[in-house]
Automatic annotation (TrEMBL), chain A:
UniProt keywords, alphabetically: Electron transport, Membrane, Mitochondrion, Mitochondrion inner membrane, Respiratory chain, Transit peptide, Transport
Domain Peptidase M16 C-terminal: 201-376
Location, primary (coarse class): mitochondrion
Database matches in PANTHER family: CYTOCHROME B-C1 COMPLEX SUBUNIT 2, MITOCHONDRIAL, METALLOPROTEASE
Membrane topology qualifier: Peripheral membrane protein
Domain Peptidase M16 N-terminal per the UniProt entry, residue ranges: 53-186
One GO cellular component, as annotated: mitochondrial inner membrane
SUPFAM superfamilies (UniProt xref): LuxS/MPP-like metallohydrolase
Protein name per the record: Cytochrome b-c1 complex subunit 2, mitochondrial
Subcellular location: Mitochondrion inner membrane
InterPro entries, A to Z: Metalloenz_LuxS/M16, MPP/UQCRC_Complex, Pept_M16_N, Peptidase_M16_C
Native source organism of the sequence: Endocarpon pusillum (strain Z07020 / HMAS-L-300199)
Automatic annotation (TrEMBL), chain B:
Subcellular location as annotated: Mitochondrion inner membrane
Gene Ontology CC: one annotated term: respiratory chain complex III
Organism: Endocarpon pusillum (strain Z07020 / HMAS-L-300199) (Lichen-forming fungus)
Protein name: Cytochrome b-c1 complex subunit 7
Its membrane topology: Peripheral membrane protein
Keyword presence, Transport: yes
PANTHER family cross-referenced by the UniProt entry: CYTOCHROME B-C1 COMPLEX SUBUNIT 7 (PTHR12022:SF0), UBIQUINOL-CYTOCHROME C REDUCTASE COMPLEX 14 KD PROTEIN (PTHR12022)
Cleaved signal peptide residues: none
InterPro entries in UniProt: QCR7, QCR7_sf
High-level lineage: Eukaryota, Fungi, Dikarya, Ascomycota, Pezizomycotina
Family of the protein in this entry: Belongs to the UQCRB/QCR7 family.
Keywords: Electron transport, Membrane, Mitochondrion, Mitochondrion inner membrane, Respiratory chain, Transport
Function: Component of the ubiquinol-cytochrome c oxidoreductase, a multisubunit transmembrane complex that is part of the mitochondrial electron transport chain which drives oxidative phosphorylation.
Length: 459, 134
């Protein structure tokens, strides 16, 4: 039983350790950062880590595991594993963990994407030891109790499902990925119907998935705002007894299929027109910077107010006021999806989708000025560099790059590579997109929204 | 479950345990619930939130077996009969399947109450007292 004094004593001990830590690493806000935006990588106790010492009073520490929906054993497992983060461990209960973090001051979160599971903690610099121990406990000592699964995790998963069902954009992107990649990358990020996961969820099975997902060869520790020596010391101490030797999580190489899907929905109209894109920068050789430039050239959203901007789709969609167009390349480790999303009222979405295909044909035939391509190159470079600077995206990309043995997200190299993209590469990319089978997902008022054949795409 | 008990006191003293355990075993058999096919944990009063939650946490097989034992015992009680000797609960089957879950729930509630009442000194005070003690 915990008495008042014993709790305050153990908190005192934890706080004392930070005070010791603090004496050895005293920084004030005005001190210059030791490094640039480049990551310093290393390996301790079998676990790869990377850090960059950005100035500021806080540190962001993440554990990235290659356990996204692509690698999950059964439906809903990635989501369940994410929601089991910060539940009871063998060392402390969930309530106590949250109270301790509240007392120290910090922010805990976990999320999963199609390829990665990310557990993140943000805290003050001097608490690095405590939070490294906390994250190490989360990945190696969580109990995965059946009653926690039934009372807490499943409830939250079902609420998340309802949230997804009410969101046509999410449904359209999920559907586009499913059409494009079938299994693997095509697995929906969150299951859309409750029976799809509840029959597979079992705390024993989730524990087995965690043994593989959180094994030392499958995780990376990435930190922003702390020095490499500090991080390596605590990683060596706390990640020593992480899981080893779980069954390796594997997924066959992605293959692009394509197709069309139409889903009726009351609360909005979305059309996603997608093509095989480029994998992400950290994947190595299969990264195609011309796809990023093509995405910026198609565009749709201006970064400058009160003007539609230079991008072709923005100019075309300015006639259809109630349609909102945006283009993005979703890059993964071995494939990508270049997706144009059109949302708005049904009639305007239908009309705007015609202009998407026309814009692509224009680029492929060379009917676009060199100045526009220069602008697109500059915008693509800016977006890539800003992504690297942005803490969240950089952390996940670096972590997944480290696990697959590729590179960390090093900003300098990415900028140079995008600069080298020329006009003919962009035109060739557009031509190859039009030749492949497209992926079209339509969600909303199906009576008013056109088919892929109607807008001139090959399915 | 949260009533005061001498059991831990007795179990930790081997000389006392040697004397008390045979008597306790005889008493449990003499109570007669085993002749109705019940286990001791079937008799725990369930009209409170803690035990209700513990019952929800039972594994499905245990829950099903518990319901079967309760229905069989109730029927035997209605007909004013004891079960035939082969259906009596054997002492080695009379395990505590619900008690540990109840203890766990009570510990969780107690921990929550303790955390509510905790006193937290500020960091500077803690650092000052640490310096003093060093």
């Amino acid at each position: 039983m915990l008495s008042r004094t014993s709790i305050s004593r153990s908190c005192t001990k934890a706080l004392q350790r930070h005070c010791v830590c603090r004496r050895t690493q005293i920084r004030n806000l005005a001190a210059a950062a030791s490094g640039s935006f480049q990551y310093e990588t290393g390996e301790e106790a079998g676990v790869k880590y990377a850090s960059r010492d950005l100035p500021g009073p806080t540190t962001t520490l993440t554990v990235v595991a290659k356990a996204g929906t692509r690698y999950q054993a059964q439906p809903g497992f990635s989501d369940a594993l994410e929601k089991f983060a910060f539940k009871s461990t063998t060392r402390r209960s969930a309530v106590r963990m949250i109270r301790e973090v509240e007392l120290l001051g910090g922010d805990l979160s976990a999320y999963h994407s199609r390829e990665n599971l990310v557990i993140r903690a943000k805290f003050l610099r001097e608490d690095l030891a405590y939070f490294t121990e906390l994250l190490a406990d989360v990945i190696s000592k969580t109990k995965y109790a059946p009653h926690e699964l039934n009372e807490q995790v499943v409830r939250v998963m079902k609420l998340g499902q309802k949230h997804l069902l009410a969101n046509p954009s999410h449904m359209a992107i999920n559907s586009a990925h499913g059409l494009a990649f079938h299994r693997g990358l095509g697995t929906p990020l969150y299951p859309t119907s409750s029976t799809t996961f509840s029959k597979y969820l079992d705390s024993e099975e989730i524990y087995n998935f965690a043994l593989s997902a959180y094994s030392k060869s499958n995780i990376a520790v990435v930190a922003n705002g702390t020095s490499q020596s500090e991080l390596s010391k605590w990683v060596r101490e706390f990640f020593e007894d992480a899981y080893t030797g779980g069954r390796k999580l594997e997924s066959p190489p992605s293959k692009y299929y394509g197709g069309e899907e139409r889903i009726a929905h009351d609360k909005g109209n979305v059309m996603v027109i997608a093509f095989p894109g480029s994998s992400s920068f950290t994947s190595g050789s299969s990264w195609k910077p011309e796809i990023g430039v093509l995405a910026a050239l198609l565009g749709g959203q201006s970064s400058i107010k009160w003007t539609p901007g230079f991008s072709l789709l923005a100019k075309a969609a300015s006639e259809h006021q109630h349609a909102h167009v945006s283009t993005q390349n979703h890059g993964y480790s071995d494939a990508g999806l270049l997706a144009v999303t059109v949302t708005g009222t049904a009639s305007h979405v239908g009309k705007a989708s015609h202009s998407v295909v026309e814009a692509l044909k224009k680029i492929a035939s060379g009917d676009v000025s060199g100045e526009d391509i220069k602008k697109a190159t500059a915008l693509a470079k800016f977006q890539a560099l800003e992504t690297g600077q942005d803490i969240n995206a950089g952390l996940e990309a670096t972590g997944s790059g480290l696990i697959t043995g590729g590179k960390a997200y090093q900003i300098d190299e990415i900028g140079q590579a995008i600069d080298k993209v020329g006009e003919d590469k962009v035109k060739a990319a557009a031509k190859s997109l039009l030749d492949t089978k497209a992926t079209v997902s339509t969600v909303g008022d199906l009576f008013a929204l056109p088919y892929a054949e109607d807008i001139g795409l090959k399915i | 479950m949260s009533q005061p008990s001498l059991a831990p006191f007795i179990r930790s003293r081997p000389w006392l345990k040697r004397w008390m355990v045979p008597f306790a075993n005889w008493y449990a058999s003499a109570q007669g619930y085993r002749k109705l096919g019940l286990r001791a944990d079937d008799l725990i009063p369930e009209e409170n939130d803690t035990v209700q939650l513990a019952l929800k946490r039972l594994p499905p097989k245990e829950a099903y077996d518990r319901v079967f034992r309760l229905r069989r015992a109730f029927q035997a009680s209605l007909s004013h009969q004891l079960l035939p000797p082969e259906e009596h609960t054997k002492p080695e089957e009379d395990i505590a399947y619900l008690g540990p879950i109840i203890t766990e729930i009570e510990a969780e509630n107690q921990e929550r109450d303790d955390l509510e009442e905790m006193f937290v000194p500020k960091r500077k005070q803690v650092a000052a007292s640490a310096k003093k003690s060093h």
